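mind reviewing this fold:
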Amino acid sequence: MDPLLLIAIISGVALVLLVFAARLALRWIVRLILIGVLLLAILGGGTWWWLNQSSPKSENKPRPSSNRGSNSNRR
């Protein structure tokens, strides 16, 4: 068998395996990115909900009125 033919066959098999591994790695990278974006959206939504729920709502409470009348120094 010619050494050049043997090198070509081994290179071809290696190239096919490399393409297969790259496609598999790319699929996993896309899956991890999608999971990361989903987790980030859930974390951001939870944080937004937590901060808006725990903050006091001043627009619902009336302002306290003073029981004392106006204080004047006139007698």
About this structure: The mean pLDDT is 86. Residues 4 and 70 are 106 Å apart (CA to CA). Helices lie at 3-54.
